[in-house]
What does this fold into?
Amino acid sequence: MENKKKKILILDGDPGHDDAIAMVLAAAFKDELDIRAITAVGGNQTLAKTTLNYRKIAALLNLKDVPIAAGRDKPLMTDLIIAPNYHGESGLDGPKLPDPISELSPLSAVELMAKTIKEAEDKVTIVATGPQTNVASLLLAHPELKEKIECISIMGGGLNHGNWTAAAEFNILVDPESMDIELRSGVPVIMSGLDVTEKAYVLPEEWDKFRNDNKVAKVVAEWCDFFYIHLKELGWPGALMHDPCAVMYLVHPEIFVAKDYYVEMELKGEYCRGATVPDYYGLTGNKPNCKCLLDVDREKFVEILSEAVRSFKEAEDE
Ligand code: RIB
Ligand code: CA
It folds into this structure.
């Protein structure tokens, strides 16, 4: 097995239960991913809450040396929309988490992202699992850094439907202009939209299996417990692992089906603002700008996620 280089990673999001599980997954993939920076954005909850949540998750995972910075508290052009119906008042309701073990970076998210990319010895991969405001702000402020970005792996969008309006998925609806900037940037975008993330669910009996394995596993199971409360009311069979898809694809692309399409943003429209519109038949004459994930081997996804969560037992036994 060739000794593959680790991907240098910046994790940007709005924790959020599924953002938190995405971070656990990224930390578990320690042989494949090297988390160099974490940046919070307003989304599921206010920026102050998502920032504090990232700092608490970092404490749970003992990521004391990874800098964490606060980013934009609202979208580029509009007011923030939050989602307490899914994530609660704190943005990460459910299990009690440890207090932060490191200070918040004095840099802004864009400054930390730019510093990380400039100092990196190789190209950097950005995972962005909330509204794309920080990433778009980085691309606007530092166009010269685009060539050092390997790709932007996002959770967001939906090629055929939305989950906050009929046409738009939450992350992209919160800040459609940012997604438009990203799609026009020329930087490779990998889109884990609802087309795949609504197939990447974990069943209650599946997360029960790892609940008592170790302290991280217990917290992940209790995040699933909480996250599933509203999803169950909506009729879903399990907890939707939206954000973990954006991490999982980077290490296990083989369990997904992906297709490259030209995707454009609907920024106007009474009913369709925030829609990610795919050019399936090449009618625009534009080259594809987005690798769109369309399907996933759910059982394999759950197997890998469960194994990742269980891997924290070693740390506990040390
Ligand atoms: O639509 C799902 C997305 O919105 C996820 O990223 C979830 O965390 C929320 O941010
Ligand atoms: Ca999110």
Summary: Residues 215-233 form the longest helix (19 residues). The longest strand covers residues 256-265. The chain has a mean pLDDT of 97. The chain has 13 helices and eleven strands.
